[in-house]
Amino acid sequence: MRIGELSRRSGVSPELLRAWERRYGLLRPLRSSGGLRLYSSDDVDRVRLMREHMAGGLAAAEAAALAAGAVEGARHAQPALDLAALRSGLSDALDRFDEPGAQAILDALLGAATLESILSVVVLPYLHDLGARWERGTASVAQEHFASNVLRGRLLALGRGWGRGVGPLALVGCLPGERHELGLIAFALALRARGWRIAYLGADTPLDTVGEAARSLAPALIVLVSSTRKGVEESADPLRVLAEHHRIALAGTGARDVAAPPGVIVLTGDPVAEAERVTTIVGDGSA
Amino acid sequence: MRIGELSRRSGVSPELLRAWERRYGLLRPLRSSGGLRLYSSDDVDRVRLMREHMAGGLAAAEAAALAAGAVEGARHAQPALDLAALRSGLSDALDRFDEPGAQAILDALLGAATLESILSVVVLPYLHDLGARWERGTASVAQEHFASNVLRGRLLALGRGWGRGVGPLALVGCLPGERHELGLIAFALALRARGWRIAYLGADTPLDTVGEAARSLAPALIVLVSSTRKGVEESADPLRVLAEHHRIALAGTGARDVAAPPGVIVLTGDPVAEAERVTTIVGDGSA
Amino acid sequence: MRIGELSRRSGVSPELLRAWERRYGLLRPLRSSGGLRLYSSDDVDRVRLMREHMAGGLAAAEAAALAAGAVEGARHAQPALDLAALRSGLSDALDRFDEPGAQAILDALLGAATLESILSVVVLPYLHDLGARWERGTASVAQEHFASNVLRGRLLALGRGWGRGVGPLALVGCLPGERHELGLIAFALALRARGWRIAYLGADTPLDTVGEAARSLAPALIVLVSSTRKGVEESADPLRVLAEHHRIALAGTGARDVAAPPGVIVLTGDPVAEAERVTTIVGDGSA
DNA sequence: ATAGGTTTTGTCAAGCTTTTGTACAT
DNA sequence: ATGTACAAAAGCTTGACAAAACCTAT
Questions:
Q1: Which has the closest alpha carbon to B280: B115, B113, B154, B168?
Q2: Cβ of C167 under 8 Å from any chain B Cβ?
Q3: Helix (H) or strand (E) holding C54
Q4: A174, A223, B139, C232: which sits with the fewest CB atoms below 10 Å from its CB?
Q5: Is C212 near strand D, with its CB below 7 A from some atom of it?
């Protein structure tokens, strides 16, 4: 806003506002191409605060120093959308086997936040937490089954049509024995958001099955997930063979600290970040 | 649409619209073969947004930057499920009599969101908006008919089989003279999602027909809708009689501020919320 | 009809009708042997639509483009529905790893047929056929994985919110070792269509997990599925224990010809029919 | 606080083109 | 029926202008 509007909102004359700027540096407005001062709504707060301090008896110079600093501080204390609260609400609902409640929270999330932030701030941390509670024995297997199925249904629905388009094709699946497909779906969604096409094979996919599909689809990338190191080691030989003909990425906690066959990209970070990285790698190489 | 129509809809003179385009790039209309500017309905929104910002005290240049940026920004930081965009897409498709386009958007919505949120965030607001436009004369009767028929077909398809099952039975219909059944269908779907069985009588149902049906079906609840107050008042006497033998709920904007006969539940809120409330009431009473 | 009649019905002068034809191609009348224009009743609609659009403020050129397109669109939108053809189309699309194609067919199905008929005429026979082809070695494991995941995502989306409501609660899951959950989902959907609430535990659920969930949810029925006889036999003992406290139904081809523990309902038919039967049994008993 | 100059923005005008309904001659 | 013509309405571009708001400097 320009100086007139700021004056109206704050009750301080334009001349005085300019004086405060020159003398105390209270405000640092941007300038238009013609030189007019352009203020933000923060500046209104700053000016109001300054007036309050002066009404409280402070000298102008002191009031300005306080007002300039205070608004900076307040800025950091305001969360836009309370993702943390929604995450714990989701967690509670799923623990209670409350499917409608969980769906309602997911609706709210999907309508208000980006897919990526939902994945990396809500869903993936929730899964991680559920896994930890399961190991400590404070979450039951039934809760884990129930929650997985609710989330899986929802995430798969978001992937509807992910095979369509003109982007590079990613063939995605879990290594044999691996049953946790939520991380894989999250990864596939993150790839999809970057323009990839997805062919989804799901949980517990034998490697010769992957090979079969790869022969007929000729994907630009094969993504395999395993949450256990053992799963990766047991598949080491067929992986090596597969890697001779296709570009392969290996993800999941099981892929860490494993000697990957040559040519296999190891993805150790979170799905969203790694999807970005893989997109860069493949994009540079092939396009 | 051409500049004159945009001017009429937005309340901004053609000269000014051209000036805003030249100076701030607020709009980027297509051109006809002869060079005339052709605008979309998005542009109406943009201009309205600009005027709102100016009414809020912003200078034209800043207001334009915000209005143009709002669309850009929405595109960049897209929520996973952009309900607002889908709603306006639906609105555009129906305005254009583009039935396949509308169906595709409904497909996408049904795949990704809960029926409830689709009803309360997309369909019902759309109906409300259509009604408002119709009153202002900016929507034609043909458009309203077309849109109603597409939505009614789709929603009724979702209700297919809603009479089956084990839940309490709701007998639903419109009061005599009432022809807008979409709100009623939405209400019935929300009840169905809560386990009710539905017997659907549709638009413009004489009350003795309702009485007959009620005698043979013994419903746990009769839901009647009227969008006009007059409709409710004219049916006051037979309603009173019906209420002696059955539990009745009265919904629709016509039900507001009306002296309801004793024993009649008046539902003034949106269908989804009221379906929840009614379910609680009846659930407490009977189960 | 000739141009005079069309003019009378549509309220547009013959000269103007000819101008619209020449300029915008709005109508393409047949010609009599003498060269007179011959119109169909569709053309009346087109002209009326054009006038509606113009009344709505659109310029003639734009109105004509919309009117000509809308009638085209409406024509394409009503092909009769051939379930058998759609089923084989679905099968082909899934065999080809063509996810978008499969989704489009599912869209068409869901828009035009009841869920029940889709399940019993398309999805379940398709699964049966896929199993048979797999045994004969004419379908690959990769195809089966891919198809299962597409269908599972779609069916789970249809079940969204199935935990809500006032109906009896069914706790559903696959027996340990059982990985084919599509039949289970179909069964759950058929129950839901009859007013049941569903708590879904998914594939490969340990029986103590089921017991845990049952203790906290107190379901009216527990549904367990197994496609192999071996799965049932191995779980015989814990099943007996579970049956002492809960009403249990056992479904899937594995449930046939097995000596069921006392009190366990054995469901040997197709999911839709058996859902009906179970609803009758439980409905008679409790309501 | 004032003076004198600058920027911003809504409006208008002139001269020409496009669009579109109607009319007329063949 | 066809083709052409015509005129009113609406639109385009360029350019200008004046009031309001804002700038710097004194």
A1: B168
A2: yes
A3: helix C41-55
A4: B139
A5: no
